[in-house]
Amino acid sequence: MTTNVVQVAYIIAAALFILALKWMSAPTTARRGVIAGEIGMLLAVVGTVLRHEVVSYHWIVVGFLIGTIAGIPLAYLMPMTAVPQRTAISHAFGALAAALIGTAEYYKSTPHGFTMVALVIEILLGFLTFTGSLMAFGKLQEILPGRPLVYKFQNVVNLSIFSAAVLLGVYLIFHPEQTQIFPTFAGLALLFGVLLIIPIGGADMPTVIALLNSYAGLSASFMGFALNNYLLVIAGALDGSSGFILSVVMCRAMNRSFTNVLFGGFGQVQVKAHELQQRTVRSATPEEAASILEAARQVIVVPGYGMAVAHAQHKLRELFDLLTKRGVDVKFAIHPVAGRMPGHMNVLLAEADIPYDKLFEMDEINSEFAHTDVALVIGANDVTNPAARTDRSSPIYGMPILDVDKARTVMVIKRSLSPGFAGIDNPLYYMEKTLMLFGDAKAFLTDIVKELAVGARI
Amino acid sequence: MLATFLGLELIRRVSPLLHTPLMSLTNAISAISVVGAILITGEKDASTLSRVLGFIAVTAATTNVVSGYLITDRMLKMFKKRDDKR
Question: Does the pTM exceed 0.90?
């Protein structure tokens, strides 16, 4: 009897998860999707707890309590600018859970055949995603240097560690009773996770986070195979494929391949400092910037990671309001890899109450720059670099960019002329029509807003 | 396999606008591994090792479930407000 109830609960839960993702496709139905997901999860958990194999509750309850107590502040206190970090850390948790369950299952039953294959894959992915996500978290939180750390023979070392882990895994599949090998196997997986992420720079984080998301999901999915639980298989596969798609989207947005992101170690390519130093830039004060914005008819704002770091989204909203009130048409152009995770900018702008029908994707808006008076770039760099279109020798050549250089005037708010995370110089800054607004994004926007507000009262 | 294809189809239709909430939602869904954790931890004759590992797994996965759904909802609420305003 209970078995049937559990089966039904699982089927409904799986269906709800699928619906949840379907509803996520539009902002209007997205919240319904979350509720569907919640109900699905509740059903799955209750169904599982009811299973007759489960008899000892008290550790489970303690785990639930601690998890809930830890989870609530994680969700509510986290500033929206820290969402990429949060996502990374929760990938780490998810992957850790999967890896530990795999480990426990292995020591419990030392299974053979197909179950063992699934288990080995689960554990390998779980552990490497765990440490990999921790490293990503460290980089995003700026505990670790965000620049790529590269050394000689890095790829060789990484590859040999990975192959060693895989070989041990294969060996374990054929000889599951060799338990003494297991810790080495797990250790290598953990180590590989660290080494995999260390050489990856900040600009590649969106791809990497999506990829880790995918691994965490796959790990859960293989756990499903190992435990013979199809709900896990389905939910894990949904997560795995969504992470995979996102990373493909991110890679395409940067015109790079997976292997390039993982083994490329960007950033070391452009050591050759060309004749750039001599070129002059024009800079402007907040007053000048304000009057230019005021006189414009159409303004396109291009936000980037700099806006996130400076928490400038609310000031940007004030600017948006003031300009809109004066009849200036303000739009926002969002590059797929702007920020540190997929969709990062959208969330920040939404937090600041900027209507989402003013946010445009790259393909939709690129043709508009040509008849735009002012393109205001806030803390974005590589995604606006015209070198990607013109300079074959540039490491980002071929990457789709926002064509801000086609606007009549370009204003760039940036702390200094230093190249961005990818370490690539941006010819945009040296163009005739470009005005550099040097300063912290938030401080500078505050000044512009003040200027405009004064003007409004007169 | 089927789920993967279905997943691919579904995700492709999600607009980039919602990529971040999408990721945190799938993250919460993948915390379904809590099911596996419960099974491991709750077994009658589980060894101390499985109990300990299972317990950590339950805790980690629950954290993801709770924070994953809550933060997704919090983000979506912000998107949602636009609708009312228009």
Answer: no
